[in-house]
């Protein structure tokens, strides 16, 4: 998400880079490009104009500081305005009621069912609350079965009434079931509906009235861009929902929904979905997203993902192996699999400060598959004793993996570099480690 917008925004700000001071002329030129970038990202025209006017007003009102140049000053102003545009501060969900009911609403195909399971897994993991999923989509074929399968994956009970086709009745029975069985959170998955379908809109209103949810979340497919924002307004007029969920942000989306939905409905984006896996759910932080858009990275989110993905006990074992010089390719592969749990490489690279400008072509999501094939082509002895890998062994391994000997040599070099880095961390050589990472 935002790749194209980030590039256009960067090009716009370049107009001021190298300038001695901010003037009416160079700011006007930059604002014209920023407005174009926003419109190209499918942002509401009124929102784009207001954003550009606010940035221009603040830029011209600033005294040029001696420590920074005009380009850097404009980046700071744009970053602050982007943060405000997307909501200012992170806003969590209210789960204080017993049980707390979370009602999902949205169009067909927006990803409500998958998100419901993701949210259940997130709440159980981070808040340790007993959660109940409720299958209230009685129209889409196999919708109840899909939720049942997802519930089994995350070890969460799914409440369903196959004998009933009344979503209001199902939702009420689910809340009663939750009270009787000690469920602290009830997540109600509803059918997708068009805003122009009065019957279905009346139905979601009836479910809302019957369950009195702590949170009503409007789930938006970010691929629909500005249409999603217009639909959100209609739903909000009926439900007065509490927050927005943006799904499919890992797809080819221009980001218009994320950038303008808050200004249109005045409700915060609370979560974003960044993949198909059950753990690809992130809390939405406007300031962190603004940093990523401007190529500043998002180190905090990167560290949080690493903490969730990496096994502490496994890490201790690896440390001991490095210290004893018994770190091998099986351990190397184990570390790679841990990294894969953190999400797509493109997404992770976007979180590294200064790395956001790497071209898409430079990030191969399938690169790890080739590495795994090479390691699997080694004998157990070769994997545990990398020093054994001479030219003839490498040649055999390359043939077994269906690759070239140059690829095997590259992997060996990567292995050695990782081993060096891990040794530096153990010795506390943070400075040298940073230098090596910059070189890489």
C-alpha termini separation: 25 Å
Sum up the overall morphology in one term: flat
CATH topology of the largest domain: Rossmann fold
Architecture (CATH level 2) name of the largest domain: 3-Layer(aba) Sandwich
CATH class of the largest domain: Alpha Beta
Q: How much of the residues is beta strand, in percent? A: 5-15%
Helix/strand class: alpha/beta
> What is the mean pLDDT?
79
Keywords:
440 residues; alpha/beta; Four Helix Bundle (Hemerythrin (Met), subunit A); Rossmann fold; 434 Repressor (Amino-terminal Domain); 3 domains; eight-stranded mixed β-sheet; 20 helices; 8 strands; disordered C terminus
Report on the architecture of this protein.
This protein has three domains: 3-85, SRP54, nucleotide-binding domain (Four Helix Bundle (Hemerythrin (Met), subunit A), Up-down Bundle); 100-296, Rossmann fold (3-Layer(aba) Sandwich), CATH 3.40.50.300; 315-439, Signal recognition particle, SRP54 subunit, M-domain (434 Repressor (Amino-terminal Domain), Orthogonal Bundle), CATH 1.10.260.30. Helix 6 (143-153) links the parallel strand 2 and strand 3 (157-159). Helix content is 56%, strand content 10%. It is flat, with a radius of gyration of 25 Å. With 440 residues, the protein is an alpha/beta fold. It has an eight-stranded mixed sheet with strand order 3-2-4-1-5-6-7-8, sandwiched between helices. It contains 20 helices and eight strands. Helix 1 (3-13) runs antiparallel to helix 2 (24-40) and helix 3 (45-60) packs across helix 4. Mean pLDDT is 79; it is low at 436-440.
């Amino acid at each position: 998400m935002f790749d194209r917008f980030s590039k256009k925004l960067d090009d716009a700000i370049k107009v001021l880079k190298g300038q001695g001071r901010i003037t009416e002329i160079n700011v006007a030129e930059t604002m014209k490009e920023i407005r174009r970038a926003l419109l190209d990202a499918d942002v509401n025209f009124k929102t784009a104009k207001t954003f550009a006017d606010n940035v221009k007003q603040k830029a011209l009102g600033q005294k040029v500081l001696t420590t920074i140049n005009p380009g850097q000053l404009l980046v700071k102003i744009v970053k602050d305005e982007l943060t405000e545009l997307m909501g200012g501060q992170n806003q969590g969900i209210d789960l204080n009621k017993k049980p707390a009911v979370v009602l999902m609403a949205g169009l067909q195909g927006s990803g409500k069912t998958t998100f419901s399971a993701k949210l259940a897994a997130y709440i159980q993991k981070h808040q340790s609350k007993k959660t109940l999923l409720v299958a209230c989509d009685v129209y889409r074929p196999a919708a109840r079965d899909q939720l049942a399968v997802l519930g089994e994956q995350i070890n969460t009970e799914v409440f369903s009434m196959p004998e009933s086709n009344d979503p209001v009745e199902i939702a009420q029975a689910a809340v009663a079931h939750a009270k009787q069985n000690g469920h602290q959170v009830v997540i109600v998955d509803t059918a997708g509906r068009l805003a122009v379908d009065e019957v279905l809109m009346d139905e979601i209103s009836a479910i809302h009235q019957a369950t009195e949810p702590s949170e009503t979340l409007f789930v938006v497919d970010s691929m629909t861009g500005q249409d999603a924002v217009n639909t959100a307004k209609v739903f909000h007029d009926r439900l007065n929902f509490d927050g927005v969920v943006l799904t499919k942000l890992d797809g080819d989306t221009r980001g218009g929904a994320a950038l303008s939905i808050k200004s249109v409905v005045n409700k915060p984006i609370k979560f974003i979905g960044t993949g198909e896996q059950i753990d690809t759910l992130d809390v939405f932080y406007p300031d962190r997203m603004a940093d990523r858009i401007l190529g500043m990275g998002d180190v905090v989110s990167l560290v949080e993902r690493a903490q969730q993905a990496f096994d502490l006990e496994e890490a201790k074992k690896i440390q001991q192996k490095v210290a004893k010089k018994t770190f091998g390719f099986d351990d190397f592969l184990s570390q790679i699999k841990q990294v894969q749990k953190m999400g797509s490489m493109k997404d992770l690279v976007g979180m590294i400060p200064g790395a956001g400008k790497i071209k898409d072509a430079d990030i191969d999501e399938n690169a790890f598959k080739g590495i795994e094939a090479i390691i699997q082509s080694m004998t157990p002895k070769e994997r545990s004793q990398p020093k054994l890998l001479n030219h003839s062994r490498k040649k055999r391994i390359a043939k077994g993996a269906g690759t070239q000997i140059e690829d095997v040599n590259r992997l060996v070099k990567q292995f050695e570099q990782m081993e060096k880095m891990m040794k530096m961390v153990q010795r506390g050589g943070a400075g040298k480690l940073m230098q090596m990472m910059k070189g890489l």
